[in-house]
């Protein structure tokens, strides 16, 4: 049998095995009927009004809408840099909801924070609030038993899944393989959008999923992330985008998924689940968060210092059919992002966990660099020691020469143990030292992967950057889910909030610049040149970079620098730079031999796979 025939045969077998759990239409409808029959229709309150907590925060949405006029919108926004604030705001707004709740997420785990949010959503449904939860199928509560239970909870609670490739809640290993073989493009199309919208008045969007490590509750590894809370007329655009996803043909109710339906049929009704048993005891920190979220005045006092009154705010979000053709300009997050970058006059401040630019993005930054009055471009991103996605960092490392020399970036790579961070280490629950080797191997887009965090030389609660933000000339601030990478451009659906306000932009810039401070990040710059070999090394490194698959040249153009005590920060290339900065190597803090690191980079992924990383 030829290799091509073997490949075709293997593909056919995998696809057949992946689809072997299919149900007949009659069985599917029977499962749907069981789920619907099991749903309670008891409502404890009058349209949710009597039981909703009083919320000055949610009331701001009504004030903002009332104070808005055509051409003169009014909004209130708040940067949520701290994970505890972000979780508190979510739980409180759910508690305060009177009419509707829409929640959209790429990842939703059944851990402490996930159980807490589920409790609150179901409680809202029981008091009469219409609750709709939309998750990406790949990482959204991927437990068919739990989804079967949720499908029959209450008539006011609905759960739907975006793009279930094989119409199942949980993707098995064979299905991963079959998805790549049979329907690569469709399988890679994921809903990366994040949104919580309450009563059509107040919304939260940004980088955070529903998982402990986004809210400072994970013991070993937490994300330094960012959300934005907004109240005002822009909520209408958020609601419209959610509706487009909710009614999309590849968005399915959970009870229609084959493995969920099988649980319903097997139980001849709605099966119980330990997570949703009435009166199930939650963790101490979850109970404390519930108590705090119930006091609207206390929540407002805590978040009021973060609130800013602003005017124009735009919400750009991809449509669910992004991958099927050209989107309208107002509903193309990547196009909106490029337009904002192209409008930069003096300075662009960019923060992304994964510095891997698409070809159009490279062209755009080359155009900025070619201007007579070229703007400064400051970039905050992950170091190898901090990242959760080793293959993505490998590609970023490959193109550092291009980013530094050709595009003129000033790159700061986040440290795994930053000196000053919004992460509340006490909230993580870590007891004593956390061994680096015990860290789970995962990535925000590839949980369970062996391509996650690398071992470090020191132990402790580790932090990785996950925020995605942009500041243009201290005029415009952007917070969203877009990673500024090829995957966000071509495969994921993304969303972002754009605030046209100087004070907000300055505050966002200050937040990003804090992550660039010497105690929090290493400065990336060209290595100090050797007079005889620098030209040869540069030329060979550039040639190796052009290889379509791997970067084989072992002597990199750039390295990491640590500011020496007693020195003030100096831009690379300025006199005295090498006197004030110590070369700490390409991969500081990483507890792997350099040869091993380069071997992993070589074998992890090649440049040909950049578009899907």
Strand elements, count = 21
Please give the alpha-carbon distance between the first and last residues: 33 Å
Number of separate domains: 2
Name given to the CATH homologous superfamily of the largest domain: Endonuclease Chain A
Rounded to the nearest angstrom, the radius of gyration is 25 Å
Q: What's the layout of helices and strands?
A:
Blueprint: H1 3-18, H2 25-38, H3 56-67, E1 75-80, H4 83-96, E2 100-108, H5 112-126, E3 130-140, H6 144-151, E4 157-162, H7 173-182, H8 184-188, E5 195-198, E6 202-206, E7 221-224, E8 227-231, H9 235-246, E9 251-253, H10 258-267, H11 284-293, H12 296-303, E10 307-310, E11 313-317, H13 333-342, E12 347-351, H14 359-370, E13 376-382, H15 390-398, H16 400-406, E14 409-414, E15 462-465, E16 469-472, E17 476-480, H17 486-490, E18 495-500, H18 502-516, E19 521-526, H19 534-545, E20 558-563, H20 577-580, E21 581-585, H21 594-604
Parallel strand pairs: 2-3, 3-4, 7-15, 12-13, 13-14
Antiparallel strand pairs: 1-8, 1-10, 2-5, 4-9, 5-6, 6-8, 11-18, 12-16, 14-19, 16-17, 17-18, 19-20, 20-21
Helix pairs in contact: 1-7, 2-10, 4-5, 4-11, 4-12, 6-10, 15-21
